[in-house]
Amino acid sequence: MQEYRTSSPAVWYPNDIAEAWRMKEMFAADGQYIAGGTLLRTWWESGTAVQPRHLISLNRIPGLSDITLHEQYLIIGSQTSLSEIRYNIAAALHAPLLVEACKVIAAPPVRNLATIGGNISSRVGDSLPALLAHHADLLWFNGSQTEAVPLEIWLAEAGTDTDAAALLTHIRIPLLDVRLESAEPDCVCEGECTCRGEAAASLGTRIKRLSAYDKVGRREIFTPSVVTTSVSGQVSDGGRLANIRIAAGGGQTPPSRLRNSEAVLEGRMLGDAGLLFALYEAVYTEFEPVGDVFAGAEYRRLTAAGLLSAAVWKSAKEMGWGEELTCC
Amino acid sequence: MLLNRKNSGERWRIRPDGPGKVTGAMEYLTDMALPGMLVGLVLRSPYPHAAIRSIHVDQARKQPGVRAVLTHADMPGLNAYGIAIQDQPVLCHDRVRYVGDAVAAVAAETLEQAERALAAIEVDYEQLPVLDSPAKALAEDADLLHPHGNVLHRNAYKTGDVEQAFANCAHIVEETYCTPRQMHTYMETEGGLFVPETDGRLTVYAPTQHGFMDRLQLSRILAMPQGDIRVVSSPIGGSFGGKDELNIQPYGALLAMKTGYPVRIHNSRWESVRAGLKRHPMVITMRTGVDEEGHLIAHQVRVTADTGPYATLGAEVLNFATEHVTGPYQYANVDVESLSVFTNNGMSGEFRGFGGNQAIFALEGQMDRLAECLGMDPWMFRRLNLRAADDPGPFGQPIVRTDGAEQVWRALHDSRLWRERQAAIERKPSIACMPTGNPPTGLRDCYQGNSESKLPWLKEGIGAAYVMHGAGLGVGIPDPAGGRLQLAQDGRIEALFGYEEFGQGLIATLELMLIETFGLAAEDIRIRIGDTDVVPDSGSSTASRATSMMWKAVQNMRMPFMSALLEAAGRLLHRNPGQLHMGRGGIYGRADHGGAEQKLLLPYRALAAATEEPLTAETRFSYPVSPVDRVGAHFLYTYAAVAVKVEVNTLTGRVRVIDQFHTVAAGPVMNPQGYLGQIEGGSSMALGFTLTEDAIMSGGHYVTRNLDTYLVPTIAEQTGQVDVLPIEDLPPGDSHGPRGIGEIGSVGLAPAIAAAVRQAVGKWVCKLPIDPAELQERPYFTQKAVAVHE
Lengths: 328, 790
Known about the structure:
The complex is a heterodimer of chains A (328) and B (790). Chain A has 328 residues and is α+β, with helices and mostly antiparallel strands. Chain A has 14 helices and 14 strands. Chain A folds into 2 domains: 10-174, Uridine Diphospho-n-acetylenolpyruvylglucosamine Reductase, domain 3 (2-Layer Sandwich); 212-234 and 241-318, Enolase-like, domain 1 (2-Layer Sandwich), CATH 3.30.390.50. Chain A is globular. Chain B is built from 20 helices and 30 strands. In chain B, helix 7 (211-222) crosses helix 8. Chain B has a 7-stranded mixed β-sheet, with helices on both faces. Chain B folds into 3 domains: 29-128 and 190-266, Alpha-Beta Complex (Aldehyde Oxidoreductase, domain 3), CATH 3.90.1170; 282-386 and 393-473 and 630-775, 2-Layer Sandwich (Aldehyde Oxidoreductase, domain 4); 480-622, Aldehyde Oxidoreductase, domain 4 (2-Layer Sandwich), CATH 3.30.365.10. Chain B starts with a helix and ends in a 15-residue tail after the last helix. Classes of the chains: A alpha+beta (328), B alpha+beta (790).
């Protein structure tokens, strides 16, 4: 029952991902990858996890700490710190929800050390609802090659036998506008999308983004999440919603997409009567949070339903699809 | 005039201990180290309640690097401590009563060796039923935690006949209020360095609020004369009442004396949470009735405090709560009963506000509810029932007269925030009242302010609360004060007090007091505190008493000390002492017409060098007490009123404080920066008490074991304006000077927030910290068949 450390682990600094992978294979359960160490440290101190004998530090491996913009994707190295993402211009443009998440995870000194890879690997990190809404894929090195796995699939595989040595090298986020352009060849996006032809008939000529991320903790900052939500999608100039993604998590709740809630919005008009009623009900029904002594599951459900409905309501206002702001 | 930098002029000074603290250059006692020192650790109980069948330390003693392993069998003196009652074992013998109880102590050459030794100690426990609530501890078949039972203390105060009075009430409000187990959360956790000296004495470098009390307690434990123990106790990285009682000192001292080596102990945050004191969780039921006009005619109160396993100051805290549940109001009939109960939860004890925070949260909640039932403005309702300047104190005892109650009432009434509230008010029928036979007449105040520009789920409200807070330890408790001034050999004027600097700004306040009293420069002064070998016993730095007692001591010493210096200077200068005066750097001459000469005649250094007799003045006295036979009753009171504006996010139920006004009637401001710091800092502590802080326990174990789950407010919670308006007037002839302000800032914010929340969202809060789930609402635009664009 005493919380005392008994020995310090050895720390290894592999030079490349293959070497890191070999070390993990060699040490097996005695070894653990480590990046910023900000979360693991709290686990060791609290007794939630036992400190392993070998720590395999990833932070000297070249090429894992960059944010690069490609034709189709924004690619973020797993060793990129949350602070770097927060202040990155390409990320602000193409992964705005992730940037919002990186503003509210922990505190500045932690964000300077903590990496996006570590936040994802925790499986409950506050970046996950944002990344789900961004359609992110995870790139894993498995000893011989790199494989892309949709984040959603990886999250769903929690608890199943996965390759323990597999190393998360990058996060791949499809460019928001590329997604639309690939789905709708008649649309051209430069910040805002413009469509012609058939696409214009169905989507409208100008497409706006629906994008909101909210984290609610037990205090304003530097707080564990109670509920984290995100929503992304597109709104035509006629007010029609498309490509909706909704995700929620927070605390020990594994983040997940809320597909039924997405379906409530998909293809509907922003100004539809009963739309937000339906969304609120759908989120409330679909979201299955884990309660604890600080906040019960019911509170978390109500909070997620309220936040997501309010996010859509607010976007509708800003896009001119709602009433004037008045006091109720 | 608001208290701030601009209005304070030259009195706004850089505090002497500021640069060292801000840069981290200053060495705290827990930063100290000596070559060859050992590391001390304490083995604490894993169980909230268990019998000890056996303790085996042989294996632990054989571990490499281990110099001592101590159990109850090794105690040289009294195996118990406690400021008031010595009922807490230093090292448990046959029973453990909470998860912080100490069973063994270890000293080893390294931390790792000490950890191994702890792990090698074998303790055979038999778990016992855990009494994790006062209700369980009070059950007829409950195990007795102490020979005299599970009630630490009872108190009561009655006047008139409340039952008869309730029959005549127009409105009665009954409510039960619950307050949290708040942690002091000082940045510096408990620790220190313990050094056995070559002459057989022991030097203790460890934070405390009363070095002489620690010395007394350690002398009992070590069976050593007090004079053989030196306690050095400042500077301290925060205390707030939490380090007044002994914590790690017995273990460090025992291990150092046993091994003959210096021993360092420093609690981790985990161990600090586990073993340290917390604010008493209290459940307070109040039944309060008024007549048709709104006069308070009956007030019945029942207080139950969870004091944890041992006494420390639990009885005194309960006495304070008993005195303060009636507040600054007049009632024809009062019936208060209070109870402090031993449990197997964590230790409760002294904490800034000392039982007043819990009492005032409940009392002010009653005032707001009653005003609403009457359809009255809550502040006018308080005015109607406010004590007059000459009225007796809450226990009917004589108290020192001031106009503070009326002054702070007026100041809040006229404040910017309260005027904003009055201008933005709309009154709606209230359904919250429980009329006695009559139909509800209540009106609820609703905020109709600048919400047009806000998002519809953000609701604002403004509320206020009133505080009357006693200072000093009260009747029947030794409360010594005193100090010494002396001219040191190097020409510095030394002020020696037995007080402690734990961040409150005592050194800065004393320095300014000396500058203003004697016309000195800061460079002329040397302040010596927190060292029992050097300073006189000035009593404890607690109970909002230190500034008052320093001021009184300086007043007492002013003439004798000046006379001693000026007479000595007069002899040296061959001048009449009446023609001399003290000033910056030394003694100056006074011109015939009484004006000051600018010429320095004799530097202090020269005066000290030329004087054989020590030039000194000393004073000893006690904190003034009411002439009444009622233990704990107070004589000097400070009054305060707080108005606060909140914003409730009804999507999340979370509350933000966005504007604050504090007015405090405590006599003259001794140090503007310190005063402001005390009120702002106290308010910040109250913010945590109200919104986020609770050391949650389950089955006698802490659930919140570290600062990742126990959440104190951050700078992001400290949003908006904080105006502080001091009221400095005292009645003509008042001889008591500045009143205490160390605690009062931590009291009124909680009930003011509760009132503001009521105005914002129409809900009464009776449990702290506020549970956001209680304030959460479904947004109107998600109601069925509401279109976004409707």
